[in-house]
Amino acid sequence: MVTERKQGLLANEGSKVMKFLVKKITLAALLSIAAATNTAANAFGLPSSSFKIDAGPVGNVSVQGVLSGYGVWQDNPSPSSVGLLASKHVGTAVSNAFVIVQKDTGLLQFYVQAGAYSFPQVGAPLASSRSSINVWGPLTWAYLTIAPSKNFSFEIGRLPVLYGHTSTFSYQRNSIEGGMLWGIETGLNRGIQLNFTKGPMSLSVSWNDGYYSNRYNWVDGLLTYTINDNNSIDVYGGGNLGSTGTLADYEGISSYSHNPYVNASLGLDNSDIYGIYYEYTNGPLSISPEVQVIDTPKNKNFGTTKGSYNLGVSLQANYQFSKTWSLATDLNYATASGIPGDGGIAGNFLGYGNGMHAWAFDITPTYQSGGYFIREELSLVHVSNYALGNVFGTQGTNPTQVRAMLETGFMF
Q1: How far is Cα 166 from Cα 234, in angstroms, rounded to an integer?
Q2: pLDDT tens sequence across 154-176
Q3: Is 197 within 8 Å of 94 (Cβ atoms)?
């Protein structure tokens, strides 16, 4: 058994290592800035090339993959009851280990992604891939597309959600950690989706099971208007047409599902989500502000006795200094209505309590050359007007948390 003194020494040594790596990578980023040329604003993600396989009557199929992991140092870790990784000052985890097989041409198309994953989020306890994979299992997105024309398509299966600007997995986004708006969303649901495009407008509408509840009573949609090559605007919305489970299931008194993630998400599954985000790109610079509202109405069937809401605002930016170096930032603000014990549940969604106010910021210099990448991230979150025991540290009473993360891996 490791004593508390040894834990402290290990945390101190780990902190020194992370600080050394942070200094080295930041210095390299600054040197690259000085020598940078003006390049296009490429988003972080999978290389455009992929392995092609002739699958006979199916046609050409492309295969891609990603394998990555991260190391983290954090102050004010959570108590051990939350999870082993969350309770550590220093730790490591697999962030992505996926194989992706898809066919994106012809009348019949498909997409399949399977593997291991984790969900690092600013201001939330970290979980290992072993724990995270219990959310959806090793098979994440898997759906069939019927595309009779370039303007219309129909999809069925395990689908990516339509709402929110931030992508689900870290290999798809410019920051390692998802922000607070992302933390309230889900990343996968099961259902059907219709897609229609005409000129600068595109519309997608989905009927699905919301927060993976296996009850098909959610409808959501996404409307995109492309103003020009540099500007676009997206409006999304969705919600539960009835109710799913009960407040007792959500609070752990009873159980709606054998999947703990589904039970913990029932408050959100019985809510409505609305949002808008704007995307601006000009040369090496991209900027994306977003506003999101989660409305949780009074619901007799579910058991909520008072309506409540969450409001979130984010500003994401990325600058591509050269073909290999970029710098991303993400600023988040979130608040929940009400006061503790007033019957509303919106304060539970981020875990800080009704009436809370939270700010979060991260900065991420990234080096990516071909399929290899390495990036560092520093993040800070501060919460005010929180419920005691619901923030950071072993007692849940510290309102601030700082993290330094280093993620590296390969994509093909």
Answers
A1: 13
A2: 999 999 999 999 999 999 999 99
A3: no
Residue 62 is inside which H or E element, if any?
Answer: strand 60-74
pLDDT tens-place string over residues 267-306: 999 999 999 999 999 999 999 999 999 999 999 999 999 9
Contacts 24+ apart (CB under 8 A), 239-244: 239/271, 239/272, 239/273, 239/295, 240/210, 240/269, 240/270, 240/271, 240/272, 241/217, 242/217, 242/301, 243/217, 243/270, 243/299, 243/301, 243/302, 244/210, 244/213, 244/215, 244/217, 244/269, 244/270, 244/302
Residues belonging to the chain: 412
| Residue the block writes with tokens 């991420």 | 364
Q: Tell me the backbone φ, ψ of residue 24, rounded to 5 degrees.
A: -65, -45
The vertex-12 CA angle with 10 and 13, nearest 5°, equals: 65
* CB contact at 8 A, 188 and 196: no
> Which helix or strand (DSSP H or E) is residue 255 part of?
none
Identify each DSSP E strand in 104-200 by its residue range. 108-117, 139-149, 152-160, 188-198
Q: Are 245 and 256 in contact (CB under 8 A)?
A: yes
Structure tokens at 189: 């649901």
How many whole angstroms separate alpha carbon 36 and alpha carbon 322?
Answer: 5
Q: Beta strand 285-296 with 272-282: parallel, antiparallel or unpaired?
A: antiparallel
Identify residue 277 by its one-letter amino acid code.
Y
Token output for 45:
């993600």
Nearest to 175 by CA among 46, 275, 45: 45
